[in-house]
Amino acid sequence: MVKYKRVLLKLSGESLMGEQQYGIDPIRLSDYAIQIKEAVDLGVQIGIVIGGGNIFRGLSGASNGFDRVKGDQMGMLATVINSLALNSALTVAGVKSRILTAIRMEPIGEFYSKDKAIETLERGEVAIFSGGTGNPFFTTDTGSSLRGIEIEADAILKGTRVNGVYTNDPLKDPNAEKFTDITFDEIYARGLKIMDLTATTMCKENNLPIVVFNMDTIGNLIKVLKGEPIGTIVHN
Q: Which CATH number fits domain 6-235: 1.10.1740.10, 3.40.1160.10, 3.40.50.10330, 2.40.160.60?
């Protein structure tokens, strides 16, 4: 029934804004929760990392005068807010989930360990990984790669606002061409940025494929899990 049995789903913080300019759109959040429930009902084990760009982004903070370390710590806390929102939405949808944080902040979430993450997934619950890697200078893309490798995921599913990897930004270049699949080496050669360089290299070195797809289109998550040819597969 499904191509991927265990996945790391990377969600964009900006996508949570929906049509808003800031914060969390409850309709978008509910749509995500419903799609995740459908995946869980198929027996897929799902770990999730959410960005925090809808609330605060460390790099933009640094460019506006914030100390980079403090800015990144603020960004980590933004991911925790989004994780709590998704946890709540999943509960409403009837899905059990568990928040595991990269920095200690009980009772908001439990401190992350691989064993806790695997136990959560094998119980059929969604594991939400928040706080990035717990360290400054690392993005949530890198956090996704790290957690995906640790939980031995079959793939990272990178949910974005575009439906795959293109030769150029399709939102700016109407002539941009989409790839059905592409290798990590070609990503480097073309200078394409599907994730930051550290995250991409981690996936390449650990043979963890990335599927880039449009999460904002309802039903796409299930199509990707079933192996339907939407989005772009990045592989060795």
A: 3.40.1160.10
Alpha carbons 28 and 24: distance in angstroms, whole number: 8
A 10 A CB-CB count for 38 gives: 17
Measure the CA dihedral 223/226/232/235, to 10°.
160
Q: Where are the domains of the chain?
A: 6-235
Residue type, 28: R
pLDDT digits (tens, 9 = 90+) for 65-118: 778 899 899 999 999 999 999 999 999 999 999 999 999 999 999 999 999 999
What six digits make up the tokens of 172?
């700016």
Provide CB contacts within 8 A for 141, sequence distance 6+: 10, 195, 196, 198, 199
